[in-house]
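> tool_call: predict_assembly(chains=two)
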Amino acid sequence: MKNLKPISRIAIALSALLMVSAYFLPLWRILMWAPQYPEWLGLKIWINNITGDLNTINALNHYIGMKHIKVEMFPEFNYLPYIVAGIIGFGLLAPIINKRWSLFVYLGLLIAAGVGAIVDFYLWGYDYGHNLDPTAAIQVPGMSYQPPLIGTKQLLNFTAFSGPDVGGWVFIGSAIIVAMVIVFEIVINRKKTTT
Amino acid sequence: MKNKVLWGMAGIFIAFSLSNCRPNVPGSVATGDAASKVYVAPGKYDEFYNIVSGGFNGQIGIYGIPSGRLFRILPVFSLSPESGYGFSEETKPMLNTSHGFVPWDDLHHIALSTTNGEHDGRWAFANGNNTPRVARIDLRTFRTAEILELPNSGGNHSSPFITENTEYVIAGTRFSIPIGDNKDVPISTYKENFKGTVSFIHVDSVSGRLKIAFQLLTPGVNFDLARAGKGPSHGWFFFSCYNTEQAYTLLEVNASQKDKDFIMAVNWKKAEEYIKAGKGKKTNAKYAHNVYSDETHSATSTILTEVLQLDPAELKDIIYFIPCPKSPHGCDVNPSGEYIVSSGKLAALIPVFSFAKVMKAIENKDFEGDFAGIPVIKYESALHGEVKKPGLGPLHTEFDEKGNAYTSMFVSSEIVKWNVESLEVLDRVPTYYSIGHLSIPGGPTRKPHGKYVIAYNKITKDRYLPTGPELTQSAQIYDISGDKMQLLLDFPTTGEPHYAEAIPAEMLMPKSTKIFKLEENKHPYAALGEGKTKVERKGKEIHVYMTAIRSHLTPDNIEGIRVGDEVYFHVTNLEQDWDVPHGFAIKGALNSEILIMPGETQTLKWLPLTPGITPFYCTDFCSALHQEMSGYARVSPAGSKTELKFSTGKIEPQASSAGQ
């Protein structure tokens, strides 16, 4: 199996180091607007925390019987820092292994982590939006309150938006760098074999 | 015959025409683009906050300029059943005085705190004219933070004007009275026994706490208004005095006899030196000092028993009198601090004194004599010049940033603009009607913001839809950005507006408090969470530690209360979101409601008088389920053995129910 180009090795290490920002930057954000909240309500999801207008949103959610959102409820926050550390670790190891397979494994890890996170987020959202207190004051037949996975959705008087925050974009950027390195390696090698 | 008829008809026609024929008077309509200059579109903000005294309603009104919209009425010296101010257990001590609980006062003047003579947006001060008091309002919460009573004062009118760095708030007595040990004297011994006082109240630069630093004893006169020096005249304070005739009856005649009364110039730096040198005399007094805490959400009232006095008749160089025509009212210092404008209400001119000349006259002992042992400076030696024929009944003067002065004319009902240096009258504009005070944003500071002058009128007559014999009070906004003053808007106010100040919105808006943090709530009866709610009996007292959050009160079922108990509902609003107050009221309470802001605790006292079930509820439409936010208190006869219990959401089995 072929060795990687020096520039590829640097780019991979860089993508891994960029992800260290996940420990300092919010990864995901949910924004909510309603006529009564012209200033917007917001939640920020970090590697091990949720911050923002949690209390305000909880106070509103009790009308429709949604569960109270509490940081302790998410076991993910306990192991997410380790998963990210593992990915970063492998990202730094890959240039040392210096083989193309290490590059594919690294990208695979990144994609798996991303997809996993989104699936997890969807499941939580589904649970919150559908498992409502049957004694809730406001009950709209057929209505569920699952937040949008990505993008915008109308939930009664609220317009909810969900999408990556700064840390999330850095994560995506890291994945794009790795994908570009793979493309670069394939193209370079093809040129070599054809010439 | 025909001719006679014709002549008769002509006569009637002429008589009718004559009766309709009246001279032209100034027009009263706003012209040109006035509407666009005061239009603040829905959802947009005003440029200035206008903090307006409420006069005999004892409150302060907060308005927007230029729209004239009323935002809030904040209670200072008067009860407010709307917020529970003066009704809740926490706020009752705010209105305590040496006389006991005084639920009203006459609030005349506003002073906004300054640093280096410029607005700093920390506090507003206000005076209580009737039972002499000074209040400090916190401009983050727009609430009364402190009230200090003034001993040895007969009425606090010449107040709450402040020095350049808010070192002192002053309080000059309107009425001289006998002070000291023997106060039971014949009224006719005014000259011998009556004294005036001027208190210098120190303001702590960090906490804003008020403390009477010293009190000057003065000859018996009436103090009307005052202004601090600034810039070169910093260290001096100027007070207008009337009734130097020392009349004690029919003042309208007997206090208007002298051709000239006085401006009293006070060298307060000199007074500070005397205090430092230990020349102050501690004298017995009794006065209340009330402070509100945003942590305990409660006021405490302390009765103080001592005040430090200085007698300028013995201690020279503290005060001087400057003769001033005919019962001066306003006494205003221009932005540079060099000129003191004083308005004799009955004078046909406005004298302008020069601070430099006053200093020179003192240095040269250019005195025409003395008044009760205090030197009187020669009028001409202190005078910069006189504004000739300004109008009738000059009262108050404010300044713009371009060297102009604007004087209100009560009798001729107009504002007169004139140049402070040249003393030349530049423009005049009618007011509707009989203007009292006037205000230019930043007008009393070293850096006026200018742009508008606002007139606060005494009479409204035909300006608004009539509402019976009591009519609305009003203010008017004039554009002063050009050479000619232009009337833009009339707006109604609560009454009666006296002095007001305006401050740029951006100085107050960013620091306006939105909520009180629950974790900072140190109220002894706060329930910081529904799990902390309880009901306790202490003899006849029942304390309900209650919480309010959308949309329920906890506990909402209370039993075991007996006729004859004193029930205290300590309600904590658990919300931590902006603009979600909860209210609390209970049927038959000989009390008001309480309005509880997010994170705050307030207490309503209730004396149950008859056995039965008494509902209580949230009075502020807080949410879609506000109407459900209610509860029941069961009152049993005195001496009954009903068990004390409380709950929320607990359903007990019932024998039968109408709902099943």
